[in-house]
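Data availability excerpt. The first of two example chains:
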Amino acid sequence: MKRKTLIALSIIILVVIGGAWYMKKEKDLAELHDIQTDLANYLYNNYRLYTFNKEELDQLDKDYDNGKMTFPEYSKRVDDIAKYSDIEKVEFTKFSVGPMKDLVVDFKINDVYSDDTSLSTISAETGKWLYSFNSMNNRNGYVLERKEKSTDKKMAEENIIYNNKGVE
């Protein structure tokens, strides 16, 4: 009789531990889902991409280097040929733990600009993660730039490609 009681007690303990592990995993995945939604909306409302026609930019560089235009003229012409695009899609590709024990989120914008951000600080005011980006980096011919005027809209859910694998 003691043996049956011990076996039954062991099974109950295993079910409780397994259930707790499963609930923690589900809670962690839900938190990662919230982070992805918040980050996608943050990018959507505060940033945009731009690129240049390489031939036009090369020609401007040559003209400036040869003294055919002043720096203010060059700068204005560069601004004129920039092709801006709003953020329409954000795909999350990976979560990992960084060397400083922060959460590193890898993502791709509009299928052309890959980047990452490290999450280590939560705002005391909003209770949300603080994001930082290396804007002005050239990735695949595109540059991430902060918008002059932010918005407060929600990105369409179908344009957020979630990563549900958890932290790798």
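And the second chain:
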Amino acid sequence: MTVTFRNSGGRAAQSGTVTFATHVIGALGVDWATLTSTQPLPAPIAAGAARTETYTVCVDSWRVPLGMRIDTEQVTVSWR
């Protein structure tokens, strides 16, 4: 998954975390579970700058039964 981070603040973001919410979707479109994972923010990001980072989001195979799929629908960032 590729995400672009834009720092619209007045000072550099020195550190932080990125949280991915990955949904396990059944064959009929039912959302069976939401699994979260975190990765470090690609810091520092200067004030007014943008930075693009590619992440691999993994889910244990036993959490996704045959006929189901995964979909990462939400990405949140906490930076300092």
